[in-house]
Amino acid sequence: MAAVEECRQPDAVEFVRTRLGFEPDARQCEVLLSGARRGILNCSRQWGKSTVAAAKAVHRTFVKPECLVLVASPSERQSAEFLRKATRMVSRLGIAARGDGDNALSLAFPNGSRIVGLPGTESTVRGFSAVSLLLIDEAARVEEDMYQALRPMLATGGGDLWLMSTPWARRGFFYEAWEFGGPEWCRVSVPATECTRIDQEFLEEERGVLGAAVFEREYMCGFMDGGAGVFDRGLVEAALDENVKPLDFS
After folding, report:
1. Cα distances (Å, whole numbers) of residue 250 to 227, 246, 247
2. Backbone angles phi, psi at 235, to 5 degrees
3. 3-state secondary structure of 65
4. Is 93 exposed, middle or buried (0-12, 13-18, 19+ CB in 10 A)?
5. Under a CB-based contact definition with an 8 Å cutoff, are residues 142 and 72 in contact?
6. CA separation (Å) from 98 to 67, 104, 117?
7. What is the third-level CATH fold of 2-191?
8. Residue 152: in which H helix or E strand, if any?
9. How many CB atoms lie under 10 A from the CB of residue 190?
10. Any idea where the domains of the chain sit in the sequence?
11. Greatest alpha-carbon span in the chain
């Protein structure tokens, strides 16, 4: 619990405002101040999921010595983009950006803490332990075996896990955690219509160009059916009744 309590500092929002030059909105403040050990951001494109997660990562590594923050995504390029955002923030702290000497995508802090970006393949991410904060960016597009390889890295450090993504299909660990993960997950959902940084006229144009289904997925936080079954998964789930006993044909 010590790591969680240390991260739950009341000055997290003030830190990113005054030290990192990032002005978070009300929902982003909620994420920064959250002490949840498990969190999910199911938000519109261009809401700022990666930016607020980068700010959370920099705050964690700055205030907590010798901690390790891992950032995973579907590809090495996306992890590199996340590290670039974090590097720009770190430069505002007066800390010279440098790697940890072991990982190509990494930021090392004077207090011994590190942010490490991971490639997008399960076979090359193993080997880390005692992770303080694990961030999975674009989690709806990350493969299941990658997720399964990452979770054990939290075992010995009591670390936190945050998933952030625009939704995709009604399958996979991101969807399952969002819909069925239980009360231990802090869920944050922000559609584009609630983001003041996105012009409403632009959204109406997008709705017309993309069509209702894609617009719902990209901007309104709606999961889409995977298309592999005869019936929509949402209809199947709505029809399930746990009080009905299965037939016994034995």
Report:
1. 34, 12, 9
2. -65, -40
3. coil
4. middle
5. yes
6. 16, 10, 13
7. Rossmann fold (3.40.50)
8. none
9. 21
10. 2-191
11. 71
Instruction: Tell me the angle at which helices 212-219 and 200-210 cross, rounded to the nearest 10 degrees.
Output: 130
Report how far apart, in Å, the C-alpha atoms of 33 and of each of 11, 55, 197 are. Answer: 8, 11, 21
Residue 117 has, within 13 A of its CA and on its CB side, a CA count of 24
Contacts of 231 (CB under 8 A, 6+ apart): none
* pTM, to two decimals: 0.85
81, 122 contact by CB (below 8 A): no
pLDDT digits (tens, 9 = 90+) for 169-203: 999 999 999 999 999 999 999 999 999 999 999 99
**Token digits of residue 202:** 């632009």
Residue 64: other Cβ atoms inside 10 A: 21
Three-point CA angle 84, 86, 88, nearest 5°: 70
Closest Cα to residue 53, out of 16, 26, 19? Answer: 16
Is 90 exceeded by the pLDDT of residue 146? yes
Pure H helices in the chain: 2-7, 12-18, 26-33, 49-63, 76-91, 144-150, 172-180, 200-210, 212-219, 233-239
Express each pLDDT in 15-38 by its tens digit.
999 999 999 999 999 999 999 999
Per the CB < 8 A criterion, the answer to whether 229 and 171 are in contact is: no
Distance CA 8, CA 41 (A): 18
Query: Do the Cβ atoms of 44 and 218 come closer than 8 Å?
Result: yes
